[in-house]
Amino acid sequence: MLIQLLVSIACLFFLLVALMVFFIRHKPKVPYYRVSQKQCVDLLFNASQGALLEGEWYAFIGMNIRDNEALEALRVHCLSIDEFGVKGTNMVDGRSCMSFNKEGTQRLEMLLDEWRHKVNYLV
After folding, report:
1. Is residue 98 part of a domain?
2. Where are the transmembrane segments (predicted)?
């Protein structure tokens, strides 16, 4: 009887371990936002031209970039532009695009010039 109890406990233990391993391996991954320098330059260029989609702008400024401090600093700078330099939205080819005031456009163009010429910012 004692042997049957020990075998039952061992089987239960291995079943629980197997279930835990299964759920750890197959749990859904949390999405994250990764951008490259080229994507940031394209975003800044489109923003300065008034052709940046509203959703792209808010996705960029709304999510933290954890894997690169320089890109996170750029995102924070764009967040400050959003606070003081956004005029609203306008329709371009049937799509809602961001519209910036004069100061916001100037700051975006300065960032664009800086980021076009950045080299080896990744560590």
Report:
1. yes
2. 6-24
